[in-house]
Design brief:
InterPro entries: BatD
Keywords: Membrane, Signal, Transmembrane, Transmembrane helix
Strand content: 35-45%
Pfam family, one: BatD
Structural class: alpha+beta
Helix content: 25-40%
Radius of gyration: 37 Å
Number of domains: 4
Largest sheet: 7 strands, mixed
Number of helices: 9
Distance between the termini: 87 Å
Number of strands: 30
Oligomer: single chain
Protein name: Protein BatD
Length: 591
């Protein structure tokens, strides 16, 4: 019994150690001993993403930088590793042994804490570590921020997320690319096109910065509760001053690669109130007007008219159904044609949606179209509102009558029964006579078709041998197959680039891949060998004209500038046409 108890305890300890090994959250300092005039860097690292990070108070230090967030995903031997870091730069307020207390974070519903860290602060040193490294300078001067217009919207209430990259005046950015795009689960989303990245001036934590708006997105939550917006992650090349100057007195800059993230955001979506919710409410949220109109109210039988149900205004126009049209059974009504004229900007969806019904009356008389109601939730007053249309009467002037009595009275009588008149010629459309003709069948045996099918397999044998031989020759041509695959891939990417016209990042990424794969097909070089000088030398060697080579190099440079330079504006259609023309010229000239 005692042995079994010990085994149980051992398994419990083992399970606890395995669980704790899965999640790591720890604090690391740049040094354990420093002068009172030096700076200390502390990193809080975790190997799984978490929420509600709470740093220690830092009561014995002055926070001179941070928090800066970095994110790293890597693969080693097929295994994915994840590392997220919150960094702070601290200046001690006094000498002695100072303790930085625990930080906490919530990961997968569990709260994790770091161990307290103690550092020894001595008297001031002659040469402090005050000039920080280039990486530390970059971390202090580059910030990616996600600005959310509203963190507690109602269900189906629109709000915006604007991603801004802040750069301090003494720091520069030479290029950037999106490493991980946010996925908006449980939201209807639409990105707002940004025409050119304009550099603006603004404040970040009270200090002057330059910034560019990288992305604007409109979101409409589709469920209630706490919803998570994933972070945007960028790889950036940052230019930071080295503290040295050239012979002309200009500051010498050094380039540092950095990964920055805007961090995840949590949106608390409120449910729409159940109290006084109309029975005909179908999810419309915003500020709307509603009307029901007809193209005409007087016509003859078998003529047609259009009845339009239309909602206009501001709100989730694409996310709810319009009320249905109800008509008397004597009117023939066709399925509606749905139309949307909606534009989406930072203020959300605005415009109008409509259903247009085609109605064809069959008999003479007056036919009332009952009133139709439309309900929506008004965000300004936070109450439900209902709009009801007027009754519409359709007057059919000429045509057959549906009842033995006057049709105008039949619609108002207490018992509007209709008499049905029999038609003795109702089945006149069915043919009752036939015109038969005899056919003579010939035996298939020994016919031309019979002998053709019999001899066809024997005739196909030589053709199959030739095809197999050609296939074997083609399969043996390893170099040729590789070139053909690359050539096919280049055509594929060029067609993809055409599909992405108007989408800047996707277009230039596809165009650049197409150009690279074209070179792999024609010059037999690998991607790792690509550089402008080698491309130019190889094309000259293959007797391609200098002007064509210059055009090809300029297209590659346009791809780099368009993808990485925030202030560059390009014309995608011109670059696509130029690329197609240049590839055609190289094909004609290459030897």
């Amino acid at each position: 019994m005692k042995f079994t108890k010990h085994i149980s305890i051992l398994f419990l300890l083992l399970a606890t150690s395995i669980a704790s090994a899965q999640v790591k959250f720890e604090a690391k300092v740049s040094k354990k001993k420093l002068g009172v005039n030096e700076r200390l860097r502390i990193d809080f690292e975790m190997n799984k993403d978490g929420d509600n990070f709470v740093p220690p108070s830092f009561k014995d230090f002055t926070v001179v930088g941070g928090p800066n967030t970095s994110l790293m995903n890597s693969y080693t031997n097929g295994k994915k590793s994840y590392l997220k870091t919150y960094s702070y730069f601290l200046a001690p307020k006094k000498r002695g042994k100072l303790t930085i207390k625990q930080a906490t974070i919530e990961i997968d519903g569990e709260v994790y804490k770091t161990f307290p860290v103690t550092v020894n602060v001595t008297a001031a040193v002659d040469r402090p570590n005050a000039p920080p490294g280039a990486s530390e300078i970059a971390s202090e001067n580059i910030h990616l921020v996600a600005e959310v217009s509203k963190t507690d919207p109602y269900l189906n209430e629109g709000f915006t997320v604007v991603y801004k990259l802040y750069v301090s005046p003494e720091t520069g950015v030479s290029n950037w690319r999106e490493k991980d795009n946010p996925r908006y689960n449980d939201f209807w989303s639409q990105n707002i096109e940004i025409k050119g990245l304009n550099i603006q001036k603004g404040l970040y934590k009270g200090e002057e910065y330059r910034y560019v708006v990288l992305r604007k997105t409109v979101l409409y939550p589709q469920k209630t509760g706490k919803l998570k917006i994933e972070p945007l992650v960028l790889d950036i090349t940052v230019e930071v001053p080295t503290g040295r100057a050239d012979i002309f007195g200009r500051a010498i800059m050094t380039k540092v690669p950095k990964t920055v993230t805007a961090g995840s955001r949590t949106i608390n979506v409120k449910p729409l109130p159940e109290q006084e919710k109309p029975s005909d409410f179908k999810g419309a949220v915003g500020d709307f007007s509603f009307q029901v109109t007809t193209s005409k109210t007087e016509l003859d039988a078998t003529e047609s008219l259009q009845a339009k149900i239309e909602v206009s205004g501001k709100g989730n126009l694409k996310l709810f159904e319009l009320p249905k049209l109800t008509t008397p059974s004597s009117l023939e009504v066709y399925e509606p044609e749905h139309q949307e004229n909606v534009r989406t900007n930072l203020n959300g969806m605005q415009g109008r949606i409509s259903d247009t019904y085609t109605i064809v009356p069959q008999y003479r008389g007056k036919y009332p179209v009952p009133p139709i109601s439309f309900s929506y939730f008004d965000l300004k007053t936070e109450t439900y509102k209902r709009i009801t249309s007027d009754e519409i009467v359709i007057n059919v002037l000429e045509g057959p009558t549906a009842a033995g009595t006057n049709s105008s009275n039949s619609t108002t009588s207490a018992n509007p029964k209709q008499t049905v008149r029999s038609n003795t010629n109702a089945f006149a459309f069915i043919k009752t006579t036939t015109n038969w003709s005899s056919i003579r069948s010939t035996p298939f045996f020994k016919s031309t078709g019979f002998w053709s099918l019999l001899l066809l397999p024997f005739l196909a044998i030589p053709l199959a041998i030739i095809i197999r031989k050609k296939k074997d020759e083609r399969d043996a041509d390893v170099q040729g197959n590789r070139i053909r695959r690359a050539d096919k891939l280049a055509r594929k990417y060029l067609s993809e680039a055409k599909k992405h016209l108007g989408q800047k990042e996707a277009f230039y990424e596809s165009l650049e891949r197409a150009l690279h794969n074209y070179l792999k097909a024609k010059l037999n070089i690998e991607t790792s060998d690509f550089n402008k000088e080698k491309i130019e030398a190889l094309l000259l060697e293959r007797q391609v004209e200098n002007d064509v080579i210059s055009n090809f190099i300029s297209i590659l440079e346009n791809c780099e500038l368009a993808r990485y330079t925030p202030i560059t504006q390009v014309t995608m259609q011109n670059d696509y046409d130029k690329a197609a023309k240049t590839i055609s010229l190289i094909d004609k000239q290459i030897k």
